[in-house]
Design brief:
single chain, binds 2'-deoxyadenosine-5'-diphosphate, binds magnesium ion, kinase, nucleotide-binding
């Protein structure tokens, strides 16, 4: 059975979307294996999480956004859950995310100069899922 790592990002928590997101996960039939709220997330943790993006010019704004408030993190399991959860999230950019996806229904288009706030994260491969689960839950 596949596992994936997900985050309800600070905007999702602030806007009261935790229940909505978890409802969709349960409706879809994925099993919630782990679930925690994390506050006071360090820059270092986000740097490791988004290591592939560290050199991008927009990276500092992503770090500021991801450390701006509490997040919900968790592990889901299910058949083909990695791609399935990515489909449920929708496209990265809110304006490209299809209606019916979490981002399509809830992410707000960024104003000029703003970071993309797109409510949720999901691992993009089996390798990323393993790495991210170990990074966020490794010592717990
Ligand atoms: P995803 O979250 O869909 O896996 P990603 O891993 O490429 O997308 O990027 C991680 C986050 O970084 C994404 O959710 C929003 C932000 N981001 C990505 N590309 C961006 C860009 N070109 N400008 C601003 N923010 C971006
Ligand atoms: Mg990604």
């Amino acid at each position: 059975m596949e596992q994936t790592f997900f985050i309800i990002k600070p905007d999702g928590v602030k806007r009261g979307l935790v229940g909505e997101v978890l409802k969709r996960v349960e409706q879809r039939g994925y099993k919630i294996e782990r679930l925690e709220m994390r506050t006071n997330i360090s820059n270092e943790l986000i740097d490791q999480h988004y290591e592939a993006l560290l050199t991008k010019d927009f990276y500092p704004s992503i770090r500021d956004y991801m450390t701006s408030g509490p997040v919900i993190i968790g592990v889901l399991s299910g058949s083909q859950v990695i791609s399935g959860w990515r489909h449920m999230m929708g496209a990265t950019r809110p304006e490209e995310a299809l209606p019916g996806t979490i981002r399509g229904d809830f992410a707000q288009a960024a104003e000029a100069g703003e970071t993309i706030r797109n409510v949720v994260h999901g691992s993009d491969s089996e390798e990323s899922a393993k790495r991210e689960i170990a990074l966020w839950f490794g010592n717990h």
